[in-house]
Design goal:
The complex is a heterodimer. Chain A has no helices and 11 strands. Chain A is mostly beta strands. The N and C termini of chain B lie far apart (41 Å). Classes of the chains: A mainly beta, B mainly beta.
Amino acid sequence: EPEVTQTPSHQVTQMGQEVILRCVPISNHLYFYWYRQILGQKVEFLVSFYNNEISEKSEIFDDQFSVERPDGSNFTLKIRSTKLEDSAMYFCASSELEVANTGELFFGEGSRLTVL
Amino acid sequence: AQSVSQHNHHVILSEAASLELGCNYSYGGTVNLFWYVQYPGQHLQLLLKYFSGDPLVKGIKGFEAEFIKSKFSFNLRKPSVQWSDTAEYFCAVNAYNQGGKLIFGQGTELSVKP
């Protein structure tokens, strides 16, 4: 069964460092997403990406965050200068159709980011 | 703003007990509704979804959920739980005219004692 894969599974970084989280969505999917879950809190939407551009982003997704699909298979989330409050589990997801049109999100296993 | 509330933070049941997990959302328009499950150490998986039609939807592993529009609810049920149902359960809403994002509830941790 095709699946969304994420690397690394866990990354520890110092505050102020840049971090790149990588995702390989399911190959025929067109819509890509990043969500995050701070420990003990809700899963929160960060950004959606379609046709090589951001289609929607949340208030959390400020100038420190960026996404890219550099080579047609990977989908990356970059945090330019990490803060303590960026510590969370980051989930990548993809879908063949837009969720609003009966699309189903397929999630990766998550990348746990710990900022010290 | 849209929000999703799951009433139970942690539910502990014995095997064969019946399960009902509550989910309420706040949004006045058309919504698509989902329940996702996350087994220990695994990724979020879709359990079931409601887009339109019969408000009683059946999902995988014997789960079902009922959409009650007047109550803004989408409760998850299973008549007889098993130890393997131990997991975290998330209710999520997609507002039909607000793109592809899901708004999640805070999750309910289910522990089933053998």
